[in-house]
Amino acid sequence: MSAEGELIAERIAALAAVSARPDALERVHLSPEHAAVNALVAPWFTEAGLAVRVDAAGNLCGRIEGRTPGLPALLLGSHFDTVPDAGRYDGMLGVLLALAAIRRLAPEARRLPFALEIVALSDEEGTRFGTALSGSRALAGTFDPAWWDVRDAEGVSYREAAVSFGLDPARIAEAGRAPHELVGYLETHIEQGPELLDQDRPLGVVSSIGAATRHTVVVTGKAGHAGGTPWARRRDALVSASEMILAGEAIAREAGALATVGTIRAFPGGVNVIPGRVEFSLDLRAESTALRESTLARIASAARAVGERRRVSVEWRENYRADAVVCAPALRAAVENGIAGATGAAVPAPIWSRAGHDGLAIAAITDVAMLFVRCGNDGISHHPDESVLAADIDTALDALTRTIETLAEH
Ligand code: HGY
Ligand code: MN
Ligand code: MN
Ligand code: MN
């Protein structure tokens, strides 16, 4: 592993140590850990030659000028926040690879036809408030003001968290970037799946970032005594929800989409009480927006049919929606050139990203592209066993640097 690779590994360990929990990696938007990570990394940005700032949304930003001051920037980066019990590479590796590439190119930045910017985005996951991509949405100028009043599990509102983080909610628009300020957004990210591992490839190019939607589904029946209520009189919200969830999985499998129920809560929650109400989350993804929509409609129809048969009501609350984003051909070609140069091999067929990424939001203001890094450990992610191969970090840095140089030549 190169000295740069070693430094990235050390910095991954330092970032992973900043967690809200002693037993697992967990770092959420506008938390003390988010502030601690921004404070930890800002000197790394400065040391690489970047002018550093925290934007009005709490994103850590850096910029180094190109051949003349004020040129549009190639934006690099990824996110710092995590899911609960996270791995240590999702998001963080992309920020550190972008930083290492900029550090390599800084001495010759004066010949680049664009500025280089890096952004360490927060709230890509939406773990704390359910407001996924809010950091990149602020950068894209599409921040949803309704988010200010969303509360976390402790009852703290996004607005209160922002103020205690030192932000002024009234100035969120200042985080917005205009299209003419950017030449593109290039994110390096672990694949979060087994495709590259199965193909025995260290790196991959992304064709598109898949469409996704997240809902809270509320099933309402009638609570009652677990013994005294005869079968014919039961309106059991949990059994009904279970039937809906299984139907949804079957529909998604058949459609080639991906459906996940990550959380479920049953009320009132007594072991000898028939659940009168259930709330479960549904995360649905597909390669295209059309397939996501048609699959969602089929799942909703199946849930309605179960509700009618079991005499329970079904309410859908959408929390998040992102239409599929096709990576820009010119940026994608530069990534393919970077991969070919770094690996000395033909570039593997592009992969559509099953995972969502900040490019879904940033595509609103500029072209996006992604460089994928192979995951080890059967491709597992959003889990402490998430891993990458040490050699792949070096190869990814080489490919990312070459990608930027390819863009500089055109
Ligand atoms: O959920 C996702 O796909 C991403 O990891 N936030
Ligand atoms: Mn993630
Ligand atoms: Mn991620
Ligand atoms: Mn991402």
TrEMBL record:
Residues that coordinate or bind allantoate: R214, N272, R285
Residues holding Zn(2+) 1: H79, D90, H189
Co-factor note (free text): Binds 2 Zn(2+) ions per subunit.
SUPFAM superfamilies membership: Bacterial exopeptidase dimerisation domain (SSF55031), Zn-dependent exopeptidases (SSF53187)
A molecular function GO annotation: hydrolase activity, acting on carbon-nitrogen (but not peptide) bonds, in linear amidines
Domain Peptidase M20 dimerisation, first and last residues per copy: 216-308
InterPro entries: Amidase_Cbmase, ArgE/DapE_CS, Bact_exopeptidase_dim_dom, Peptidase_M20, Peptidase_M20_dimer
Binding site for Zn(2+) 2: D90, E125, H382
Superkingdom of origin: Bacteria
Cofactor: Zn(2+); Mn(2+)
Keyword annotations: Hydrolase, Manganese, Metal-binding, Zinc
Residues that span the membrane, as ranges: none
CDD domains per UniProt: M20_bAS
Pfam families cross-referenced by the UniProt entry: M20_dimer, Peptidase_M20
Family under the similarity heading: Belongs to the peptidase M20 family.
Complex formation: Homodimer.
Protein name: Allantoate amidohydrolase
